[in-house]
Amino acid sequence: MRQERVERVLEALLPPTALSPTRLHEAMRYAVLGGGKRVRPLLAFAAGELANAAPERIDSVAAAVELIHVYSLVHDDLPCMDDDVLRRGRPTCHIAFDEATALLVGDALQTLAFHVLAEQPLASDASAQLDMVRILASAAGSRGMAGGQAIDLESTGRELSLPELEIMHIHKTGELIRAATLLGARSGNGLSTAEIERLDRFSKFAGLAFQVIDDVLDAESDTATLGKTAGKDAQRNKPTYVSLLGASRARAFAEELRGQALQALDVFGDRAQRLRELIDFIVLRIH
Ligand code: GRG
Question: Which residues line ligand 1 (CB under 6 A)?
């Protein structure tokens, strides 16, 4: 139900294909709609509901985070980065369109995300809303996801220690998952600072667990199930939790992280049920 809501919101936010420049708008819609697990928007909803946020406010933060996420996927798939042809079970954006269009799709999705965050009241006052903008900007920027991607590119073909790998994953994947949770929480007024800190702790474990499982699935699953090319990490000689620990210890580590994430939710009792379901999904998923 929430997933359908996310689809509707994204569909309504994206420029229509009839609007010029039509090819760019078509490519933006191609990249965003009709695929993806929507884990980040679902985290924003679960945290937002915990904070008694109005659903329309959660819509905006959930969409903003997903737009940043899709921009990162489109750019990551480009030949100058991961050079992939399959994403969400379909040709990647630059294959379906062309490289220059895919670059612009990423640019335009990123700016649309900030437009969405700035468009309507999402917090009790303007300064709280500016904090939300700042949270997304740092999560996506050079000290967050883009920085993690830079470390990833530099690390290909090199050996990393476990702490170095953790730093890379926390930035590349973890920061946006953290932002999704925090922005959901901040779109409502129902949580104390201490409770938001608990959610922050939860989201850090969830983000790292997400990437550890991503590493395992890349090594163990197949292209049809994943909807993206399997086995790329080994093929590109990338350091991952599987290359450092082996698949079974990597899974055990993800399970440990899940336990720590669940522990961080203890204070919320039954109110955090949806967040518990999401960490279960993150660790037990098959794609
Ligand atoms: C290009 C600035 C820039 C950043 C790219 C996110 C990212 C950084 C690269 C994508 C490649 C990758 C394996 C990243 C790790 C994060 C990750 C597992 C992304 C895939 O997320 P899912 O599984 O994808 O949530 P869906 O398609 O379900 O939304």
Answer: 36-37, 39, 72-73, 75-76, 88, 145-146, 149, 172-173, 211, 214
